[in-house]
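Side project, low priority. Logging it here so it doesn't get lost.
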Amino acid sequence: MRGGIYVLNFYSPVFADQLKRGRKTATIRLGDKSGKYERGQVVWITVGFRHSPREKIFTAVIDDVEVKKVADLSPRDIEHENPEFRRLDEEIKFLEQIYGREVSTDDIVTVIRFSQIVEPPGPHFG
C-alpha cells in the first residue's frame, strides 16, 4: 500500500449532505482507478472544486474497488453512488455531466465503496 494521504473528492455540494447523512457510500469513477485506490486504504472524503478550498467531510476506509464496464453496473452500485438514481441511463447521463463527454456502456468505470471511520469522543473534562 502506498504512503501519504489520499482524497476522494466530490465536486457538487449536493453530495456533502448525502455523505454526512450516510446516504452516499460509493463513487463511480470513469476509467480504471485500481492503481490509485485499494481495499483497506484510508482516505479523506472531501467536497470542493479543483484549485479551491475543500471541506473535509470525514475520514473513510475503502471497502472495495471494482473495475467493470458501465453496462455491468448493478442497481445497487448506482444507488450507493447516488441515492436518487436507480437506472443505468440516469447514471450514464450523470457521468456525462461530470466528465463533459459522452459515456457508453462499453466504457470502463471503477466502483469505489467506502465506510466512514467514526472516531470515539475525546476525554470529557468538567
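Brief comment: The mean pLDDT is 91.
Revisit when time allows.
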